C-alpha cells in the first residue's frame, strides 16, 4: 500500500497514531510502528526528562519509524526540541501554534515536519512555512480542536484543493471504511486517535478506556472555546461547566473551574466525574479493547474489503 505518506515516513500502511496526551507513550507508539503504521509519542503530557526516557525506550522497542507530537504552546518547548534532536528522532508533528517558528530548525537537522491544522487558511500557512505534510483535522476529533467546527468530510477536499504537499486526514476515523472515505476525499493517509485510546498499549486508565466503550454518538461535546477548544465526554465536570456558562462567566471564572491537571485526572488517573475526558465522536464505533496490532490489521482488512466492493 505504497503512496506519498508511506514513502515519506518509510512505513507499510498510511496509518498514523495520534500523539494524545496521557495516552501515547512509547508502548503505544512502538506497537503501532511495529504493526506497520507510524507510532507517535505525545510530548504534551511529558516533562522533558520523561520524554527523553520514552524516546529511548521506543528506540529499543522498535526498529521502525516513529515520531513525536509537540504542541507549540509547550512551556519547555526549546528543551523538548533539543531532546528530540539529541535523541535522533526523525519525524515531528507540531500542533497548536505557528509552524514557522521551528520548521526550518528541525528540517535543518534532517527531521520531517508535519503540522496539524483545522482550516484551509492554516493549511496554506503551514505549506508556506515549508512543512513536509499536513494533518487536516475535522471537529469530530477528540481532545484539542479548531474553533471553526468544520467537519472532516468537508475539510479534507477543501484543503486538498489548495495544497501541493501530502495530506493526512484526522477526526472521526477509526475503521477501514473511514480510512477509505478519507482517501476518496483526497487524503494520502489518516491519523487515528480515539481508536487507539481503547487498546492494550494505551497508557490511559482502564476506567477511561471502559467509558469510551460506553460512549454513544451524542455523548461528547466541543467546549471551552474561550481557552482552547476541546471535545469531552459529558460527565459531571462537563455539566458543571455548562451550568457555569449559563451565568455568562468571565474567562478567569472558566479557568478557575477548569483548574489544573483535569485531563490527567480523567484520562490517566481514571476519575470519571471530576476529570476532563477527551475523546472523539467516533467513540460510538469503539466497542472493544484490544492490542494495537489487531486494530491496525482490522483497519487494513476492512479498507481492502470496502475498496473491493466499490471497484
Describe this structure in words.
The protein has 14 helices and eleven strands. The protein has two domains: 4-203 and 297-310, Aldolase class I (TIM Barrel, Alpha-Beta Barrel); 209-282, no CATH class. Helix 8 crosses helix 14. The protein has an eight-stranded parallel β-sheet with strand order 1-9-8-6-5-4-3-2. Strands 7-11-10 form a three-stranded antiparallel β-sheet, with no helix packed on it. The radius of gyration is 18 Å and the shape is globular. The longest helix is centred in the last third of the chain and has 19 residues, at 292-310. It has 311 residues and is of the alpha/beta class. The chain has helices at 4-9, 26-34, 48-61, 77-86, 103-107, 120-128, 152-162, 176-184, 194-197, 206-214, 236-245, 251-258, 262-268, 292-310, and strands spanning 15-17, 39-42, 66-71, 91-95, 112-117, 133-137, 143-144, 167-170, 189-192, 220-223, 230-233.
Note the overall shape: globular
Structural class: alpha/beta
Q: What is the CATH topology assignment of the largest domain?
A: TIM Barrel
Radius of gyration: 18 Å
Name the helicity range.
40-55%
* Mean pLDDT rating: 95
What count of structural domains? 2
CATH architecture call of the largest domain: Alpha-Beta Barrel
Order of helices and strands: HEHEHEHEHEHEEHEHEHHEEHHHH
Q: What's the CATH C level of the largest domain?
A: Alpha Beta
